[in-house]
Design brief:
Elements (H helix, E strand, L loop, with lengths): L1 E6 L2 H13 L4 E6 L9 E2 L7 H10 L4 E4 L2 H5 L2 H7 L3 E3 L3 H8 L1 H11 L6 E4 L2 H9 L5 E5 L8 E4 L2 H12 L11 E5 L4 E9 L4 E3 L4 E2 L2 E3 L3 E4 L4 E4 L6 H21 L6 E9 L5 E7 L7 H7 L5 H8 L15 E8 L23 E5 L2 E3 L5 E3 L3 E9 L2 H14 L13 H6 L1
Parallel strand pairs: 1-2, 1-4, 2-3, 4-5
Antiparallel strand pairs: 6-9, 7-8, 7-9, 10-11, 10-16, 12-15, 13-14, 15-18, 16-17, 18-22, 19-22, 20-21
Helix pairs in contact: 1-10, 5-6, 6-9, 7-8
Length: 425
């Protein structure tokens, strides 16, 4: 079998790792990949959003199955192009990917499907948005409706702050086309949870839930980011809770998408808020594996998980279980460049010790190699350092110890990943 992974971040490195673990003899390719995927696969110098070149590469390299990592190529219709060419692909088509590429559309789908979510309104006119904000209580959440690389959600403590953010997006072009439409939403309190489900549009297998850490600094301080770390498993995700997530979130959304003529195939990510009273609300949907969630979910599962991706892509999936349980705990800590998320510095030399041990995996995200082989920081989130263990505490220790030893100038990281779980223990 010859498999292509589209993308070049930490998520795609984790996908390549899982595929290589499960299929050692497979021909594995990554486009564009990164220095980490290069140790597992053949990197192809093709941008993840270059749909035409990716279709051509699949023909040239006789690819059997393509797995799409990031959201942008899915929103651009990459999966549709592959299916039109009779090529197996794991990922939703453009219409189904609107669950992520348009937060306004996702809200409408949830309303029609009866899925619990926060009260909100959608705007393209700044004056209308400001009137709405002035009439609602504090705090508020302002979201760019389009794709904003994980940086389009701003929690605003005051109406004044929400008004400033709305102006910046709608009138100031702060996020480009992603902010041409915004969603203003009530603030929901509780504990966030990332629940991912594999699906062919009909069957559903829920993966082990994880918890992400969006804020830059310890204690959930600082600006929102694409994610500074995650852990799995999460103790509060009981079997009854996952049964509710299946019946209250995934099943109605999949039925609604099918009714709209946009059946969903691939992995569907539900970002949830669990209220103190037990209520579940959907904060967002993503049309792909989370990053950094993939870097803890995949290593924590037993070998063989990638067979689900391949069978869904080839439309021969017949799952025997409704939930996949982790076999070990995992904690990943993101090592970011100085200045992230606003203006990350690039070019720092990275030194990764070779003796981090069998309980540590280092997934490359924003890295590149010079012609002489020197590894350098080349993005905001540079590395995802995943520690493994019998429980979350042991995994967190392994991740933190490895982070201390990996070196590059300006290294920025949180030292409290999984703090909620450790308080519960």
């Amino acid at each position: 079998m010859r498999i292509l992974v589209v993308g070049g971040g930490g998520r795609e490195h984790a996908l390549c790792w899982a595929l290589r673990r499960d299929s050692p003899a497979a021909g594995l390719f990554a486009a564009p990949g990164n220095p980490g995927t290069a140790t597992l696969a053949t990197n192809l110098p093709i941008a993840a959003t270059d749909v035409d070149a990716l279709v051509a590469a699949a023909t040239q390299h006789d690819i059997d199955v393509t797995i799409v990592g990031p959201e942008a190529p899915l929103a651009a219709g990459l999966a549709d192009r592959f299916r039109a060419a009779d090529r197996a692909v794991f990922g939703p088509g453009e219409a189904a990917a609107r669950l992520e590429s348009s937060k306004a559309y996702a809200k409408e789908v949830m309303r029609r499907a009866g899925v619990p979510t926060g009260a909100s309104a959608t705007f393209t006119d700044v004056t209308d948005a400001l009137k709405y904000i002035e009439a609602h209580g504090e705090p508020l959440v302002v979201k760019a409706s389009g794709l904003a690389a994980g940086k389009g959600v701003v929690v605003c403590a005051t109406r004044a702050e929400a008004a400033d953010v709305a102006r910046a997006m709608l009138a100031g072009n702060a996020l480009g086309v992603a902010g041409n439409e915004i969603v203003v939403e009530e603030f929901l309190s509780g504990e966030e949870l990332s629940v991912l489900a594999l699906t062919d549009g009909e069957h559903i297998v829920i993966l082990p839930p994880a918890q992400d850490h969006k804020r830059l600094g310890d204690g959930d301080s600082g600006p929102n980011t694409g994610g500074m770390g995650a852990y799995c498993p999460v103790a509060l995700t009981t079997a009854p809770l996952l049964a509710r997530v299946r019946s209250e979130v995934f099943e109605p959304v999949l039925r609604e998408m099918a009714a709209q003529g946009a059946p969903y195939e691939g992995v569907l990510y539900a970002g949830l808020m669990l209220a103190p009273d037990g209520a579940i609300s959907v904060l967002e949907f993503n049309c792909r594996f989370g990053d950094p969630e993939a870097q803890v979910i995949l290593p924590g599962l037993a070998p063989g998980v990638s067979r689900h991706f391949l069978d869904i892509a080839r439309r021969r999936w017949r799952p025997k279980r409704q939930v996949l349980a982790p076999t070990r705990a995992a904690v990943t800590t993101v090592l970011a460049a100085r200045g992230y998320p606003e203006k990350p510095e690039r070019g720092a030399t990275i030194r990764i010790p070779t003796d981090l041990g069998p309980d540590v995996l280092v997934f490359h995200a924003g890295t590149a190699r010079d012609a002489d082989g020197t590894l350098r920081a080349a993005g905001g989130r540079v590395l995802s350092v995943t520690g493994l263990g019998a429980d979350v505490r042991a995994a967190a220790r392994a991740s933190a110890a490895a982070c201390e030893r990996i070196a590059f100038e300006g290294k920025t990281w949180r030292r409290d990943i999984a703090w909620r779980e450790l308080q519960r223990a």
